[in-house]
Each structure stands twice: as C-alpha cells, then as structure tokens.
C-alpha cells in the first residue's frame, strides 16, 4: 500500500510525524509478511497499522492541515481488519484436531468463484463513488485539476477495500490485485519525484507481496498435506485447486 503520504503539518511537528509514518510503514510490511504465512495475527497487526495511518491523517488537521481519506474510507479501513480477523478465526484449523487446546494452524485458501468476481466488480466502483461523495461532503476543493486527485484517491481507497475483502474471504486471487497495485505504486515513486525512503518502502512492499503471493500460490497448486482439502471443507473452507495432470 501507499506508505508515504503528503501531509501539511504544524511547524515543529514534521519530524515526529515522519517518524510515525516510517513506523507505520514497517508495521504494514510486517502485516504483509504475516498474511503470507496465513496466520490470524496478520489482522491485528494490520489494524494497528491502519490506526497509525488514521493518526497521521487526523493530527495535522488539528492545526488546519489537509488530510486525505479521513471520512468513509478511513472508517472502512479500520473496520475491515476486524472483519478479516473474525472470518479467519472461524476458518483456522487446529494442528491436532483431537486436542481442543492445540495451536491453530494457517487458514485454508479459496479460489474465487464467478459470484465473487462479480461482487468485486461491483464493490470497486461502489466504494469509489462512496469515498468521492464522502470527501466532497467534507469540503474537498474541486477547483483546478483537483477533481482528478479526488477520483484517484477514492479509487485507491476502493482498491484497498477489494484487496482486504478478498483476503478476509481467503481468496487467492486477491494477491493478483495487490501485486499489480504494489508494482504501480513502485513505478510511480520511481518516475515522479519521490523521497528515497518512499521508493525503498515501495520496493520492500513489492518484494513482500511477491513472497506472500508465492506462498499462497504454492498452497493452492501444490497442497503439502494430502488431507488438507477435506479438513478445510469440514471447517467451512473451500478446497484448493490441485495442479492439472
């Protein structure tokens, strides 16, 4: 995701906010790594990171600064990790099914169905319009070329929603969108003038998303445990697709 945000900050507080921005970026990278491992701890870590983003956005406003996404989009971003944690808790499988106190293993993975593809295609424009309307109602300036900024930032937030919803439902294809989005962000930070820290963090994001994507891809096409599909069905998951013969 986009770790570095342009903020208008009160005099004397820029250094502290940049430090918090770097910290939340590292927390976000940790969340990506944990998603790759398919552990439920990814969602609490993501919630912490989103809460830090919220602070970065709202604190400058106390001194009249401009902040992005401090409306419907940030509320959704804070709710989605809670929803994802709840979904993954129901899908996690115990290491030893006969031992109620056994540790929980990684969640099972689904392949997207036609209905889920259709839902994603509906959620993306609906969320974009919702976030645009929310920003306009909050007084987002519309003069000049800022209409393009409004559309792009709303689309950005909507893509994040689709990715997190896909992960919450353990859908493998969500990583396609996340990887494409991470690559676009890295390319943008390299083409347009960006701080070296931003480029470094975007590059690290691409590498970690690639790692997580490959981990899920391996489980989907080369399940390590022969009985994993049946166990996943019993726990409410969907069977992984085996490689073609």
TrEMBL record:
Cell location: Membrane
Regions that span the bilayer: 12-34, 41-59, 65-86, 117-134, 146-167, 174-192, 198-216
First-listed, main subcellular location of the protein, grouped into a coarse class: membrane
Membrane topology of the entry: Multi-pass membrane protein
Keywords (A to Z) from UniProt: Membrane, Transmembrane, Transmembrane helix
InterPro entries from the UniProt entry: NMN_transpt_PnuC (IPR006419)
Protein name per UniProt: Nicotinamide mononucleotide transporter
